[in-house]
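The passage that follows is intended for readers who have already worked through the single-chain material. We present the inputs for a multi-component assembly, then the predicted structure in tokenized form, and finally a short commentary. You are encouraged to pause after the input and sketch how you expect the pieces to fit together before reading on.
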Amino acid sequence: GLEGAEDTDTDLQPRPPVVTIMGHVDHGKTSLLDALRKTDVAAHEAGGITQHIGAYQITVPDGSKVTFIDTPGHEAFTAMRARGASVTDMVVLVVAADDGVMPQTIEAIRHAKAAGVPLIVAVNKIDKPGVKPERVKQELLQHEIVVESLGGDTQEIEVSATQRINLDKLLEAISLQAEVLDLKANPNRAAEGTVIESKLDRGRGPVATVLVQKGTLRQGDIVVAGAEWGRVRAMLDDKGRQLKDAPPSLPVEILGLSGVPAAGDNFIAVENEARAREVSEFRQRRARDKAAAAAGAGRGNLTDMLARIQAGEQKEVAVVVKADVQGSAEAIGVTLGKLGNDEVKVRVLHSAVGQITESDIQLAKASDAVIVAFNVRATSQARDLAAKEGVDIRYYSIIYEVADDIEKLYKGKLAPVQREKFLGYAQILQVFEVKKIGKVAGCRVTEGVVKRGAGVRLLRDGVVIHQGELSTLRRFKDDVREVNNGLECGMSFANYDDIRVGDQIECYEVETVAAA
Ligand code: GDP
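Having made your guess, compare it with the prediction:
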């Protein structure tokens, strides 16, 4: 098998499923990972010392195998997806029976849905007296997860991680889901996969845990992981055993790389050192270009997306919708649902009411989606993250403009792109009447800078109630061009005076960036 070659059906053989455990904090993800690991029927014969390498594989009583990603939570999952890696075949969603569906439960559902990965619900802590697993099912319904006992197709198992109840049933559910997915890979080709974890070990040098996804990795193979390369000097499993070869779905720790790759990086085995150098150099160049692009014009994913659509490389525009009220969110969802053409589809990944949070940015980043903000703003953390990750947030206050804009986007005509640059926040401390000007807001700048002539959004309880222009800006009696963080100033807005103490003012500039 040559590196990169396509596999035909006859080359494919069944492979074990790769499972990620997600759920709210303290619902028992770590406990469940520990408990499942102890069910391994092959552990005793191995005799090695178990070690954390970021993923492990167990053998269940019927002899089949399951791989678990050993970092609970959705951060690792989204970080990998953001790097273009998809390692997980299914998600086990842990929900504590005594706590029910919580914010991170909902996030996990969103992430799994966005990735198109099926869920199995593990209702945990059923050993606790008085818990009501039924309630969890009802709560899940509100998030469009319909479990089998309610007529849906999501498997749900009641378990106790600490009392080790129904772990066998959970493993059966995983096997069943794996059968449905018909997971296959060609073991007879050059290995390819994803870096799960990596570190620089004092004694052993760069160490990376890789999940083999195609082919078989062999000791002595020359591999490129991210932009690092080297000959696999040694290969160990999670039980500390030295291996000569690793088939699809097996996570192994490899030694011998030139440096430490990042989690989510792709790895491939190549024919020789010359080819390894070539691939490594190509990847280094690409990483440099990306960094330069991100540092440069502050380009977000929209610009790249447009270029890909125009080049016919991208077939879908993914959108995350955040709106001030449910009615708007729904209306936008319906409007966007009608868009798209034969070449490009529009897909609403997630639609909800409220501010744009870091988790929205992560979701958009992982799915390469654009965020549509309707009369809402981003939290300052979310805004920073969006800038750092190059996620585009597009602000609207008229529904048809959303449709217009997204339509232009998938038709590849959204050029030039208008990008918003955040300037600062101010808080209204006082409101007074000034002759000839009207109502003036006495403010303190709480972040960044505010500038006369810049765009402003007036926020009341996190909702945009006005969007317009900052027409006057004063310090004491003087007109000034800008006021920095920490200072007080007077502001008034063009054609608008419904201002109140406690309102927040977001100040921004619009810059125009060429499309592709
Ligand atoms: P994580 O934050 O989701 O990884 O949760 P942990 O696995 O750390 O568990 C959080 C707490 O819940 C710990 O004190 C566990 O001992 C406890 N716990 C986890 N699973 C169970 C269970 O099945 N039954 C009971 N009674 N407690 C559990």
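Commentary: Residues 14 and 372 are 41 Å apart (CA to CA). The mean pLDDT is 86. How closely did your sketch match?
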